[in-house]
Design a protein that fits this description.
The structure is a homodimer. Chain A is built from 15 helices and 16 strands. By secondary structure, chain A is α/β, with parallel strands linked by helices.
Chain lengths: 378, 378
């Protein structure tokens, strides 16, 4: 299912390929988040035009609305939402941690209250697998026990070891004609725990591995350090997925260290809030300075937002027009896809480290640049 | 600018063509409403795919946000919003009547407070023309004095005669290289006033004529009657535009009587509220009965909403996903465009009256059908 095509000669960045029942994904890849069976505000044709090959669906959300029984009866997630390419579903572990009201987590599984209607829901690892099988995603994730950072070593170790036992139970429960199950390495910011977890999961021989429990409050440097002491213990011949990350600079840093796959709500959520990503850092479109600005967000971007002026995009946000969030979401997704496409191209030419340095130099702007962006009449 | 291509042999329906600086419009035509420089939630490519040839912009709204100065400095309304086809702008007369807080209307013009920030705005007829010239629409409308229905004859007559004087002032003020100015027939539900207004305006020789002041509280039959006693006095060699109308059955009734052009917020506004138009009447997608319905809204519709199940569309609305309003707006606009395309085709074959009878028989459903549509858990 995974092929390592090329290892960059000057850094740990790698060019790979993932084959799924619904098509091929060129790696490194970024997955737009389609929480409830739709990438918010983006129609399928527009989504394909951004360059996205695989999208993510949230098992927690879909199991609450419309319910996996409805999705299954309407033909599974692909047919339900109309996306014919690969789909990865998470297990719900992170949403239980971040959204739900947890009632109890013990060896048996998680018990929590829905953030929609307060219903009590029991989620043992086996059920997390069965829900994802009902959804019919191409890649499913094991249920993991996510804890906040920072945290004491005992809590981190217990949650990590439980996550490994749950991963084994998920593997034993899995029974689907084409769905592949990825494991998730936990262990917080503790090098020994991350190493131990990666090694225990490697023994279980999953078709892919994720790094979980990051982007939950630690600094960027702490996250990069965690990648440095975790990735060397993850199998080289399996895809590596950094869950829920991140900013363009985070993605470049993770690719530099050998990560293959990403998902994050930033391009979509920030787009809905009038923030546009560019190589020179984000623009805040509500800023008064864009009122009569006839330039596009980015001269070289082929997306429909960049066929308009910044002044028009600002108008859409000031007038609360849906098209503002729609266009900026499409722009940001196009930007993220273009970023990973350029990364793939650079790796193929053994020059990812150079691409990384150039991009980081532009992305990380001076405080004065950033202040100018926030100086607004709104 | 207008060509009468064919008069149906068995009714007053007519097939025409309108040529503008930004392209040709086949008549009868329906214009989607793009109030603030965007048809809410619909990207340009999607809008073109519905079959729309001309869109409408609202002068009142655009003059408040972003202001006609901003639109002009960003290249005019076409460049501003990216729509390269024909655009018609209204004059603001109807919005002053329906949205703004009117302070005074006298011979000089209207004085009102903005519904956005309460600013006092003076709008003499000449300024309504100059704003539309700054926007650069292909067709501009004269400023008219709209009054509520029912109303006493004196009020209706005064408003009608003032509208004629204002139309003359608009014509005298107009000075734009390609923009054409259409006049608006007023006179409420009074046959003599409508006839008199149509004749006075015909003498002024405008390139097109609208019927205004309808769809403001009268019954459908009263509106059809008004068309019957107004249209015979409007020039045959000029396009006839029924402003702000309407339901599919209203459009069919008006085409039957010789109307060429329509605009209405119903397909877009109702789409955002989960109502889908079909030949068999509207569906309300929040209805519980669609929860696991795997059928499309309409088997024969080529729109992206009809590539999904009713169950999926219902889910989008129940989960407050933007894609629900987007898809139903696109479906409804596709439905309206398909309706007028079929009307044009029927007229070319002298069988519009037959098409009208067939469609009306399906659209006007029994009370039991309608009740079933409203029986919902929401």
């Amino acid at each position: 299912m995974y092929t390592l095509l090329r290892q960059d000669a000057h850094c740990d960045a790698r060019r790979g390929r993932l084959e799924t029942a619904h098509g091929t994904v060129e790696l490194p890849a970024f997955m737009p988040v389609g929480t409830l069976g739709t990438v918010k505000g983006v129609e399928l044709e527009q989504l394909r035009a951004t360059g996205a090959e695989m999208i993510l669906g949230n098992t927690y959300h879909l199991s609450l609305r419309p319910g996996e029984d409805v999705v299954r009866s309407l033909g599974g997630l692909h047919k339900f939402c109309g996306w014919t390419g690969p789909i990865l579903t998470d297990s719900g572990g992170f949403q239980i941690f971040s959204l739900a009201k947890i009632m109890n987590i013990d060896e048996q599984g998680a018990v929590f209250r829905s953030h929609i209607d307060g219903d009590k829901i029991e989620l043992p690892p086996e059920r997390a697998v069965k829900i994802q099988e009902a959804l019919g995603s191409d890649i499913a994730m094991v249920l993991d026990h996510v804890v906040a950072l920072p945290n004491d070593r005992k809590t981190l170790e217990d949650a990590m070891l439980r996550s490994v036992r749950w991963a084994k139970r998920c593997k034993d429960a899995a029974d689907h004609p084409y769905q592949k199950l990825f494991a998730i390495v936990q262990g917080g910011l503790d090098p020994a725990l991350r190493k131990h977890c990666a090694e225990l999961l490697a023994e279980l021989d999953f078709p892919g591995y994720a790094i979980g429990g990051l982007s939950v409050g630690e600094t960027p440097q702490e996250m990069y350090d965690a990648l440095d002491f975790t990735l060397p213990f993850m199998p080289v011949d399996k895809p590596r997925y950094l869950m829920g990350v991140g900013k363009p600079e985070d993605i470049l840093n993770a690719i530099l260290r050998g990560v293959d796959l990403f998902d994050c709500v930033m391009p979509t959520r920030n787009g809905r809030n009038a923030q546009a990503f560019t190589d020179d850092g984000p623009l805040r479109l509500r800023n008064e300075k864009y009122r009569q600005d006839d330039r596009p967000l980015d001269e070289s971007c082929p997306c429909p937002a960049c066929k308009r002026s910044r002044g028009y995009l600002r108008h859409l946000f000031m007038a609360d027009e849906m098209l503002g969030p729609i266009l900026l979401t499409i722009h940001n997704l196009t930007y993220y896809q273009h970023l990973v496409a350029r990364a793939r191209n650079a790796i193929e030419q053994n020059r990812f480290a150079e691409f990384y340095r150039t991009q980081m130099g532009r992305l990380i702007r001076t405080p004065a640049d950033v202040e100018s962006e926030f100086r607004t009449d709104q």
